[in-house]
Design a protein that fits this description.
There is one protein chain. This protein is an alpha+beta fold. It has two domains: about 5-120 and about 260-270, Roll (Diaminopimelate Epimerase, Chain A, domain 1); about 125-255, Roll (Diaminopimelate Epimerase, Chain A, domain 1), CATH 3.10.310.10. The chain is about 15% helix and about 40% strand. The protein contains four helices and 17 strands. The chain has a 17-stranded mixed beta sheet that branches. Strand 1 (about 5-10) and strand 2 form a beta hairpin. The chain is globular and about 50 Å long.
Length: about 270
């Protein structure tokens, strides 16, 4: 069958259709992305990931990401780990460097089935999130239902993290869409609800912009870990428990955030031309 080869992958159930366009360009628009991501009539995924030829020396590939709704975004933590897994297996290297619109990201082998990615520095100023107006990002005045007093963090994409007593009790599917599109977030925002389980452990659920509720969100886990440390609820080295499993997050003293977790290839296929 001739057409467009792809690999279906996931990180803790956060799933991706991955295309290799390093040798031949791949034309995607919002309608095509939505058609591929559709779970009943397409392949089905939370995001599309495309590997392109590197644009700068010293890197292994350029990554692009599209959300399920067809919008292109700068960063995706679990998607980066999945792409890194493909390149690590292909090259046999212990380390690869991936270019993204959020900056270069170094990925490493981290044990059997595990990939660690340096997601770069957490951005914490209001204009870096971005927010619509100047505000203390440790106490952001936005909320809905039982949620208020968010922490804003940019991990290559904007996040608002709300700390709650019981993450399971929050009707995130109902209030997530309104918070995602609140006027305070000119680029929309990913909405996380986090519960402190211990000084080194958080429970997290995430409403992802352009996708909805997902089994896991890598940048969301990074944002929650940074937010917990900023609030004094946790240390800088935490395990984040998501619906699909656990990610290890370290907010280093130099400001960079490292994420470690598993990836898996579900199947390969070919889309008709």
């Amino acid at each position: 069958m001739t057409g467009l080869p792809f690999t279906k992958m996931h990180g803790l159930g956060n799933d991706f259709v991955v295309f290799d366009a390093r040798r031949a360009p791949l034309a995607l628009d919002a309608a095509r992305v939505r058609a591929i991501a559709e779970r009943r009539t397409g392949v089905g995924c939370d995001q599309l990931v495309v590997l392109e030829a590197p644009r700068n020396g010293g890197t292994d590939a350029y990554l692009r990401f599209w959300n399920q709704d067809g919008g292109e975004v700068a960063a995706c933590g679990n998607g980066t780990r999945c792409a890194a897994r493909l390149l690590l297996d292909e090259t046999g290297a212990e380390r690869v460097v991936l270019e993204t619109d959020a900056g270069p990201l170094a990925a490493h082998e981290a044990g059997v089935g595990q990939v660690r990615v340096d997601m770069g520095p957490a951005r914490l100023d209001w204009h870096e999130i971005p927010l619509a107006r100047a505000m203390d990002t440790l106490h952001v005045t936005v909320g809905a239902g039982p949620l208020s007093d968010a922490v804003a963090v940019n991990m290559g994409n904007p996040h608002a993290v709300f700390f709650v007593d019981d993450a399971e009790a929050v009707p995130l599917a109902e209030i997530g869409p309104g918070l995602e599109t609140d006027p305070l977030f000119p680029e929309r925002a990913n909405i996380g609800v986090a519960q402190r389980l211990a000084e080194d452990r958080l429970r997290l659920r995430v409403w992802e912009r352009g996708v909805g509720l997902t089994q896991a969100c890598g940048t969301g886990a990074c944002a929650a870990a940074v937010a917990g440390a900023r609030r004094g609820l946790t240390g800088r080295d935490v395990t984040v428990v998501l619906d699909g499993g656990e990610l290890g997050i370290v907010w280093r003293e130099d400001g960079h955030v490292e994420m470690t977790g598993p990836t898996a290839a579900s199947f390969t296929g070919v889309l008709p031309a």
